[in-house]
Design a protein that fits this description.
This protein is α/β, with parallel strands linked by helices. The protein has one domain: P-loop containing nucleotide triphosphate hydrolases (Rossmann fold), CATH 3.40.50.300. Helices cover 31% and strands 22% of the residues. The chain has an 8-stranded mixed beta sheet, with helices on both faces. A 4-stranded antiparallel beta sheet has the order 2-1-4-5. Strand 7, helix 7 and strand 8 form a beta-alpha-beta unit. The structure holds iron/sulfur cluster. The site of iron/sulfur cluster has 13 residues, from helix 12.
Length: 340
């Protein structure tokens, strides 16, 4: 498909990215006496949009498919079905050369700053690497850009010749952030960027990310299993369970008025820093189902305290229960948005 054709898919004002019914399935090999290949539906029919300059959070337990979704959105993985539309362009349909150009404005911050930095490269080489691939600037211009970005993320110039093992986790993550920013990106996929850090340095890195977002007008897609982190950084939040989004709302709406039984349980588990506030945790029954053999109907029915017979057979669809707040649960579908 030509660039002109894919650009013709109009996007809403302010919208930078739209995900439409994206699926990502992984197929196993067919074994002896097996009728069909096994399949893991890591991401199953997910749709949402992200506005320019906002931080869109995706939360869920480990293995719910949130990282796979992020990698599919930025085309590190090809979607099995569905569209990812960035600034009106269908990324999966873009010619390789066009996609290569877009890589400059779509960047990633990885989860583990220990694994994502080559230990044999100096700080200068690490941060400059994207420029070496994408820019024709002179060596002096590249060095000047590296120094400028290092200053922005709080790294001193004297670190230029040092190696990753000489830094703490927080400083390493600053190097990773500098590398992500060196090409002046617009959209950054943040894959649990603070989960490998000590609690004491998490706040520093999160504050830095907030400041950089304001300064460079960045749009973040932020993945985390930590609800406190997501609350601090995100504007809107989607909750994922076994490959599907089950609830999506503005941050304050979600934290004050969670609707889906799974979100309710997650919220009840957040520690409250006040000894006088007593919160009764909602305990989820049963184990997380295997993604190789997910439950029928509502994927959450094996652990839901409100489950009915209908939940075992019928997949609930996302519906808007109040402006900007969507939920996939039969409890709300039957009553036009109000809980039954
Ligand atoms: Fe629970 Fe049924 Fe709602 Fe699923 S659809 S969350 S099982 S009440």
């Amino acid at each position: 498909m030509s660039e002109k054709a894919v650009r013709s898919m109009k996007n809403d004002a302010n919208e930078i990215l739209r995900v439409e019914h994206v699926k990502k399935y992984f197929y196993g090999n067919k074994k002896l006496f097996q009728k069909e290949r096994s399949v893991v539906k890591a991401v199953n029919d997910v749709s949402f949009d992200i506005k320019e300059g906002e931080t869109f959070g995706i939360v869920g337990e480990s293995g719910c498919g949130k990282s796979t979704l992020g990698r599919t959105v930025i085309q590190l993985l090809k979607p099995t079905e569905g569209k990812v539309i960035y600034k009106g362009m269908d990324l999966a349909a873009l010619p390789a050369e066009e996609m290569r150009k877009l890589r400059m404005e779509i960047q990633i911050i990885f989860q583990d700053p220990y694994a994502s930095l080559n230990p044999r490269m100096t700080v200068r080489e690490l941060i400059q690497a994207p420029l070496d691939v994408f820019s024709n600037a002179s060596a002096e211009e590249k060095l000047s850009k590296v120094k400028e970005i290092m200053a922005k993320v709080g790294l001193r110039e004297e670190y230029l010749g040092k190696y990753p093992h000489e830094f703490s986790g927080g400083q390493r993550q600053r190097i990773v952030i500098a590398r992500a920013l060196i090409l002046d990106p617009q959209f950054i996929f943040c894959d649990e960027p603070v989960s490998a850090l000590d609690v004491s340095v998490r706040a520093q890195v999160l504050n830095l990310m907030k400041d950089l977002q304001k300064e460079f007008n960045l749009t973040y897609m932020f993945i985390s299993h930590d609800l406190s982190v997501v609350r601090f950084l995100c504007d809107r939040i989607a909750v994922m369970y076994l490959g599907r989004i089950v609830e999506l709302a503005d941050k304050e709406e979600l934290y004050n008025n969670a609707k889906h039984p799974y979100t309710e349980a997650l919220m009840s588990a957040i520690p409250v820093p006040d000894v006088d506030v007593k919160r009764i945790p909602v305990l989820l029954e049963g184990d997380i189902p295997s993604p190789y053999n997910p439950p029928s109907g509502c994927l959450f029915h094996t652990r839901c305290r409100y489950a009915t017979e209908r939940c075992k057979t019928e997949v609930p669809q996302m519906m808007e229960v109040c402006p900007g707040h969507q939920v996939a649960c039969h409890l709300f579908a039957e009553n036009g948005g109000g809980k039954v």
